[in-house]
Amino acid sequence: MTDPFVHVESVEKRWNGQLGVEDISLSIPRGSFVALLGPSGCGKSTTLRLLAGLEVPDSGRIVIGGRDVTASPAAERGLSMVFQSYALFPHLDVAENVLFGLKVRRVPRAEQRKKLAEALDMTGLTGLEKRKPGQISGGQRQRVALARAIVAGHPLCLMDEPLSNLDAKLRHSVRRDIKKLQRDLGMTVIYVTHDQTEAMSMADMVVLMKEGRIEQAGKPAELYETPASTFVAGFVGSPPMAFMDAAILPAGLTSAGLDAVYGVRPEHLDLTQEGEGLLQAVITHCEYMGSETFISFDVPGTSGLTVRLPGEVRRSVGEAAGLTFDLSNLHAFDKNTGYKLSR
Amino acid sequence: MNDLARYERRRRIMYGWMLLSPALILLSLFAFIPSAMTFWSSLFSRGTRRNPSEFVGAGNYELLFADPTFSKVVVNNLIYAGVTIPVSIIIALAMALWANSKIPARGFVRTAFFTPTILPMIAAANIWLFFYTPGLGVLDQIGALFGFGSVNWLGRPETALWAVIIVTIWKEAGFFMIFYLAALQTIPPDLKEAADIEGASRWTYTRRIVLPLLMPTTIFVAVNALINSVKLIDHLFILTKGGPSDASKLVLYYIWELAFSYFDRPQAAALTVMVLLVLGITAAIKFIILDRRTHYQ
């Protein structure tokens, strides 16, 4: 990560004293796909808008491609953006929408035509040039927004929840299309989403935010396998990590003492006969997903306790069962701060 | 089964007529029938005790074209419309763009712009009468500060029509601004952001995005302004009464004079028919041609 392409240094933004984002520092290498992930109101969109130049930070520095752009207007940052609403111009047809930026910058007409054909081909919109945004489907509109973002060939593309207005099935295929486009064009993409599956499946680096701060940034596997806090552990993974108070675990098992909370992933839990195992529990929920079954339990002092079992497992709600797990798979967190305890 | 279908059909037709009837009755009573009657009476001569009214065909229209006052008021009204429509639209648009931007005291600015609309035209005319009064009026007093002599704005044939035009623009621009303001607020802010990222200047954004999106409003406002340029003559009664020597007389005022000062109802009817015809044709052209080139959301 020598010479990062996008470098953000302790950026802060407040509105009338209300916190937007605080102490945001990021280094993004060229050609990577970065997801800004978090619940609504966590500041991920604000961070993106700060990068885009739609907002000006109160303090801190933003460097893109080696150039300090902290005070530069959006147009001079050499980036494109896909808006959540797509922000297509309703009175212009698909071709004019895609070419808007090139026309503004007075790119020669022959080049405009060539780039338009390329962008439409890449996004599978060829043949729709003369349609207005109101005459095409939501998925096509989304691809027009993508085409507009790639047509100029900017090395950096910002995406603000581009899939949130699509239905689940379409979302899945567009996810692959975006990822493929990014790889083919070698673009650096910064992608805002509240959907952890999107972030985990697409990104090279996930930046999980909470209340205007970065909670943890790293490869998807890092966030999954070594979450820095209970917040990360509870946000990443589906179903997320379950938590258990140290007090309910058999004494002597836990080295971190009673001030700890232990987290365990559903795949690391195992079901045993009633009376055996480390915990005794009652089944509250049984979800059959085809290739696997999730069984949820209610045990005082725990939350979100779920076991993942392969195939179909028939257990009835209310049945008692034992739970067991390998101690090496436990994650220990501080009970008060929520942060990871070193072992 | 066939009977049932026929019954159903008849029921739907009845239903359609019932829905149509309130508008049909009201429009017929107050628009269609009077128009037809006006046209009919424009074909007869003015009846006096000695010469009873008789059918003269286009005679009243021929008389009109021979009447020098008629050509005068038509020219006046063309100037009046030709100036008030574009100028009030441009001012309305400028005020709306300004009142829609992030400025301090935005509410105050909007209210201030809208105030002339709330005033009755008669009251507005009285205010402007005071502005225009020679010697005492605000305009003359300001002019005197810079050493200009007193001007009788409303009393001179060269300035009377323009003085009336200014009052109309002052009155209308604020009203049209409200429509533009409403339309501007329906334009999502992220269009501006998308344009910003593409490097569009404020002017490019306004010209390529905002103005086209405001076209439906512009058509609506333009049609309204056109109608007003013929319909709105209240201020003439206060300011000039069409004078001096017909310099500020507009078509509708002349119709009123013909009908109620000279009691020449057939002439008034003929002129009314011509106004209706011209307005109808203009509105049709506007809607047909401009609609095709306009984006409606």
TrEMBL record, chain A:
One of its GO terms (molecular function) is ATP binding. Keywords: ATP-binding, Cell membrane, Membrane, Nucleotide-binding, Translocase, Transport. Belongs to the ABC transporter superfamily. It comes from the Bacteria. It holds the Pfam family ABC_tran. InterPro entries: AAA+_ATPase (IPR003593), ABC_transporter-like_ATP-bd (IPR003439), ABC_transporter-like_CS (IPR017871), ABC_transpr_MalK/UgpC-like (IPR047641), Mo/tungstate-bd_C_term_dom (IPR008995), NA-bd_OB-fold (IPR012340), P-loop_NTPase (IPR027417), Transp-assoc_OB_typ2 (IPR013611). It comes from Roseinatronobacter bogoriensis subsp. barguzinensis. Residues 6-236 form the ABC transporter domain. This is ABC transporter ATP-binding protein. One of its GO terms (cellular component) is ATP-binding cassette (ABC) transporter complex, substrate-binding subunit-containing.
Automatic annotation (TrEMBL), chain B:
InterPro entries: ABC_transporter_permease (IPR051393), MetI-like (IPR000515), MetI-like_sf (IPR035906). It comes from the Bacteria. Pfam families: BPD_transp_1. PROSITE patterns: ABC_TM1. Keywords: Cell membrane, Membrane, Transmembrane, Transmembrane helix, Transport. Its main location: membrane. GO terms for cellular component: plasma membrane. SUPFAM superfamilies: MetI-like. The keyword Zinc does not apply. The chain crosses the membrane at residues 12-33, 78-99, 111-131, 160-182, 209-227, 268-289. It is found in: Cell membrane. This is Sugar ABC transporter permease. It is a multi-pass membrane protein. Residues 74-289 form the ABC transmembrane type-1 domain. GO terms for biological process: transmembrane transport. Belongs to the binding-protein-dependent transport system permease family.
